[in-house]
Recover the amino acids of this structure.
């Protein structure tokens, strides 16, 4: 349904070009939830913003294709994009629960989102909003309330309702549970699972938290410093990770159910993407790094069906 | 991470501690004497033993940070006492206080906000020495700063002292914050969400550092976190707070593996498992955290508890359910 191929986005900064996203490819099928995981600065939010073409003015899309069905989003006109945004692809922005207008009842804010894209009669609008409230598990009688009368979890539900307002095919959620407490996070994840089942919704979930991905995603894209290092079905990634970075990420999560084990960590930090970067971006932090890793960019290789990785030594290092 | 390091001697004793914050109310309710209060900490009794890492877990608004601020004496309690090595924190005279100040240090959540951007790393780390009047000899100050930086793994210290915080990564900054806490040779450190702002790959590194320093420098920690998995990893004992009260406290492994309180159980079951094949179990809780202004009567968890009975209209006390494991629930192990 959605196919991202070789996406490259750079930012113009005072220190030079920042290679935020440098050749990212993945695809999303109908009814699927794909997670994009990586540490801060790996380019995951830039990928998301490219899909709805809402990048800041300093960003340059240098290459690649984003195919939604048969249309390339990257070459669409602004006019065409208006038809795509919210009706085809909608987005829940990071920290958006604090961006609700405090002086407007939430109902009006959802109505605003709908009216910007569709013309509905008063009655239809009301019905749509009631339906949305029910779908996200909010009490319809509270639609005239103001944002401050809602808890964090309820505000996130309002944001999800807003994203669903125009029946989109794809919803992109950028860190939808990061600011929420554990139990509320669980409830929101349940809601997402539920919506996917009922509406056959396709989602892209952007997060730094691998355990959230393990909960609800079907596929996962692991990003590091602007590149996809590994991509595959959720069980493939968690059970047979091939890239050293993926393994390090999985091992650095403290486990709850099993015996207490030593935690692993990755020493060093991500390379500065404005300067010279090693051919394999993980070179320097990688325990298996050899000379070739600094000189030749590792190719994207098929490990098994639907599972790709980009490492010179994935055969040797993966257990 | 053995609990054998911890002795039975409490370094901090919190007794019936309360901290209420007055909230602004209308003029009328003001003169009618109907003042409203946020019950941030609402009757906490807790010991922290020498050499242990006690973690305080709970959702936002449960009072864990307020409790830590009271222990740091950044806030005055409404009621109750805290003693540090047997000495009351709030009645101590100036000299006693000065001494205690050097023994208690803190590491905060956000290493981007907690380090002064205009100060070099040397200035940042030497500050506790200066404010406590321990910088008599410049050479000695330098040596102490360098030793602290080396202890937290910023090697060689020489190359860091002249840098500014913006030149360091998030993990390095948090190391500087830890160096600043240990430079004055404290015996007790309050760490308030020290890894929650860091990326996962760096988190483990800082946690390992914190545990290593505990052993090397004989430190005791109060570790505040909302992340139960992190708490299990670092702590000997865990205390679970809800709406200003400790609901359950005990050895970390017991709390995680054999939780007693329905709230602790709900928290643990809400934790995402990093295992895609595990089917999620149901989280047994209803509703949302009530306002800390109108605390439910009786057991404060009762309105959200699926097991609540008549008994729960009375407030439960913390009682020992197993060795060193206490829970404030009438049901204890019975039907839960």
């Amino acid at each position: 349904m959605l196919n991202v191929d070789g996406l490259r986005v750079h930012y113009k900064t005072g220190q030079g070009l920042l290679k935020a996203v440098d050749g990212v490819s993945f695809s999303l099928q109908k009814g699927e939830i794909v997670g994009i995981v990586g540490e801060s600065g790996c380019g995951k939010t830039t990928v998301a913003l490219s899909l709805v073409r809402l990048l800041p003015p300093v960003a340059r899309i240098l290459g690649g294709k984003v195919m939604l069905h048969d249309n390339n989003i990257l070459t669409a006109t602004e006019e065409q994009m208006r038809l795509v945004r919210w009706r085809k692809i909608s987005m829940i922005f990071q920290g958006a629960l604090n961006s609700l207008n405090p002086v407007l009842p939430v109902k009006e804010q959802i109505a605003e989102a709908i009216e910007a894209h569709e013309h509905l009669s008063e009655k239809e609008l009301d019905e749509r909003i009631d339906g949305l409230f029910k779908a996200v598990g909010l009490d319809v009688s509270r639609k005239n309330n103001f944002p401050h009368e809602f808890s964090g979890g309820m505000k996130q539900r309002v944001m999800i309702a807003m994203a669903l307002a125009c029946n989109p095919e794809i919803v992109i959620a950028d860190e939808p549970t990061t600011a929420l407490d554990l139990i509320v996070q669980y409830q929101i994840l349940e809601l997402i699972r539920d919506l996917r089942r009922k509406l056959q919704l396709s989602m892209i979930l952007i997060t730094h938290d691998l355990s959230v991905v393990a909960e609800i995603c079907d596929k996962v894209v692991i990003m590091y410093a602007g590149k996809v290092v590994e991509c595959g079905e959720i069980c493939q990634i968690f059970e047979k990770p091939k890239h050293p970075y993926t393994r390090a990420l999985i091992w650095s999560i403290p486990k709850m159910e099993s015996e207490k084990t030593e935690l692993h960590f990755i020493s060093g930090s991500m390379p500065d993407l404005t300067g010279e970067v090693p051919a394999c971006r993980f070179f320097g932090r990688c325990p298996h790094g050899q000379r070739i890793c600094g000189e030749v960019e590792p190719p994207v290789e098929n490990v098994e069906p639907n599972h790709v990785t980009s490492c010179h030594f994935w055969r040797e290092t993966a257990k | 991470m053995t609990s054998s390091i911890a002795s039975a001697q409490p370094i901090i004793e919190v007794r019936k501690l309360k901290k209420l914050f007055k909230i602004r109310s209308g003029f009328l309710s003001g003169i009618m004497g109907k003042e409203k209060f946020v019950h941030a900490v609402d009757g906490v009794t807790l010991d922290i033993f020498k050499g242990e890492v006690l973690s305080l877990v709970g959702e936002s608004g449960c009072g864990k940070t307020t409790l830590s601020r009271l222990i740091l004496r950044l806030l005055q309690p409404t009621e109750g006492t805290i003693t540090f090595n047997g000495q009351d924190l709030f009645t101590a005279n100036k000299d006693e206080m000065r001494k205690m100040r050097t023994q208690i240090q803190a590491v905060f959540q956000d290493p981007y906000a907690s380090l002064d951007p205009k100060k070099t790393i040397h200035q940042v780390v030497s500050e506790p020495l200066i404010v406590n009047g321990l910088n008599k000899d410049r050479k000695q100050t330098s040596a102490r700063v360098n030793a602290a930086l080396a202890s937290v793994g910023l090697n060689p210290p020489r190359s860091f002292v002249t840098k500014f915080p913006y030149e360091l990564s998030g993990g390095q900054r948090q190391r500087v914050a830890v160096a600043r806490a240990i430079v004055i040779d404290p015996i007790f450190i309050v760490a308030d969400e020290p890894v929650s702002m860091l990326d996962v790959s760096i988190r483990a590194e800082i946690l390992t550092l914190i545990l290593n320093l505990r052993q090397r420098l004989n430190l005791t920690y109060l570790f505040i976190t909302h992340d139960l998995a992190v708490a299990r990893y670092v702590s000997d004992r865990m205390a679970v707070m809800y709406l200003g009260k400790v609901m359950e406290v005990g050895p970390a492994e017991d709390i995680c593996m054999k939780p007693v309180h329905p709230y602790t159980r709900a928290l643990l079951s809400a934790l995402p498992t990093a295992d895609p094949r595990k089917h999620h179990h149901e989280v047994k809780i209803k509703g949302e955290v009530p306002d800390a202004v109108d605390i439910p009567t009786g057991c404060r968890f009762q309105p959200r508890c699926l097991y609540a009975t008549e008994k729960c209209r009375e407030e439960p006390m913390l009682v020992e359910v197993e060795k060193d494991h206490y829970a404030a629930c009438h049901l204890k192990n019975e039907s839960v």
Residues 3-269+281-327 of chain B form a domain with the Rossmann fold fold (CATH 3.40.50.300). The two ends of chain B are 30 Å apart (CA to CA). Residues 1-5 of chain B have pLDDT under 50 and may be disordered.
